[in-house]
Amino acid sequence: MRRVLIIGNSGGGKSTLARRLGDKLGLPVIHLDVLFWKPGWVESDRDDYRTRVMAALQAPAWICDGQFPSTFHLRMPMSDTIVWIDQPRTLCLCRAIWRAVTYRDGGRPDMAEGCREKIDFAFYRYIWTFDRRVRPEVEAALAEHGAHARLFHLRNDREIAAFLAQA
Question: What is 3-166's CATH topology?
Answer without folding.
Answer: Rossmann fold (3.40.50)
